[in-house]
Amino acid sequence: MALDKIILSARSSGLIPNTVRYLQFSPHCVLVGYHQAVELEVEEEYCREHHIEINRRITGGGNLYWDEGQLGWEIFALKDTPGIPKHLEEMYRLMCESVVAGLKRLGVTARFRPANDIEVDGRKISGTGGTEIGNAFLYQGTLLTDFDVDTMLGCLKLPIKKLEDKQVNSFKQRVVCLKEVLGCLPPMEDIKASLAQGISEVLGISLEPGMLSESEQTAYNQALPAFQSDEWIRGTRILPQENDLCAAEHKTPGGLIRVSLRLDPNRQRIKSAFISGDFFAYPERSILDLEARLKNTSSRPTDVLNNVRKFFSDYKVRIPGVSEDDFYHALYLAIEKGR
Amino acid sequence: MDINNQTVPEDLYYDKNDWWVKLDGELAIIGMTEYGQKNTGDILYLELVEPGYSIQCGEKLGSIESGKWVGNLISPLTGVIEESNYEVEKKPRQVNLDAYGKGWMYKLLLNDPGEVRLLMTAQEYAEWIAEQAKCELEMG
Predict the structure, then answer these.
(1) Which residues of chain A make contact with B139, given a CB cutoff of 8 A?
(2) How many whole angstroms separate alpha carbon A258 and alpha carbon A339?
């Protein structure tokens, strides 16, 4: 985290060129987003028992579990770099497509899923987020290479607590790693080289290997204690909430819809959603896409209804015996429980 | 006035970080413009600095998050924070819903009220928005 800040500041000050950086974590850790509160996002007791460290990113987004099985990728650049869109949504797409191109070189057909994810057949393989200092930005993501899903489920507060094993297994299908896609894990150096080639190709740049400059190293050494302090890790002023996990079921002619939501009642937000049931959706991945569509959106009933209807219309979803309004109703019931 | 479907009230001042400024004697009420909030998208988090904080024009005045992007709020003026709108910190969506009303962020006691002359008028800001839209079109 400290290096993210140091490199971004150095880029903003013109001390270093645009930079691509990879990162891995050992010991393993949980990272919350810049504005997230540790107590709301992390199973701290589980982390203590399993010697999992906790820290806070300088970028936005949600809670993440990192071990050696995740490869972080980061792009530091000036905002006015030619070819980089000024609009965030377009910039997200370009950055993610550079990583998609890298994955293609490894034999993986991935694609960008708005707003911020890279997925393979509807299953998330890389989440992303960013921040800025002055005229420079950092865009970063995690690439799941090999993944310990059970530990992730243990250390993060996710919308699946108290669910049955079958539903937990269904939740695990929301993410996928390189090892599962390819049947074996390529050497990490090959993965890094492929991503670098994809980034170079899509952004039209050439990359040269580099190390931290002397000034970056000095600044890093000075900044490290602050980034290890409780003041930083728990420094966010987000208001605590109790029992933000809400679940509901809704029976329809086509089957039972189960909805589990993490809600932010103060901000009237759906933080994350998990939807399962015994209905049949076509295309099959549409429920995963609906979950992605609902993440970090308004939990006001009218907004949820519009969001669900627009999703069904945009994606031409067909679910025999289940209407779009049934999904809205199941979501509404869960939201009502959170009031 | 309206420009590119954005409301730009004529009695306010503006800057290029998409702040609006309403002057009331030595006090400035500031918030994000409609154009700014639309570009930012759904705002998930706002973290405001506390009253009493001295701020220089161009310095960080808090942080904002939308779509997993954390951005800095950069002060348009120099002064001391008189009041922070904690209601909008609790419900940042107010900035999206009512940028010029309930979405205000700070009341700032200005060191020099004359500093607002360095900001843009509504006409100048509207022209600036149009220029931005033209640049975006040219970039494709």
Answers:
(1) 85-86
(2) 19
